[in-house]
Amino acid sequence: MMLKNKAKLGDKPASAILAVRDLDRARRFYGETLELEPGDHHEQVVAFRTGDTQLLIYKSEFAGTNKANAVVWYAGADFDALADQLRANGVTFEEYPEMGMEIAGGVHSQGDFKAVWFKDPDGNILHFNNM
Domains, the chain, ranges and CATH? Predict the structure, then answer.
């Protein structure tokens, strides 16, 4: 069947969404520690602006159960400044030596690639890199 006006999901904006146990604690972490600008919020969902998209957080009993990356930001040339700012805000970077990269001060590097991983208060794994 051929549709006249074919809709494509790939043409639509997307957002990352993270489960948290405590919305107030998460609001402080994402708003104050990570310095994301708050957006719309509802009783159980809070949005933060990040670039041209948004990051949504919502209350769930399953918060922090994901053991893989939940969100990635592409920092580009601002990588070092962002890493310094987050350290100054109290963020501790995770170290994953099993990845086989060089690690200095929590910054993983391989060739021109640099990345850091860190966790929110619920254990969600967040990441940014210089690409």
Answer: 15-129 (3.10.180.10)
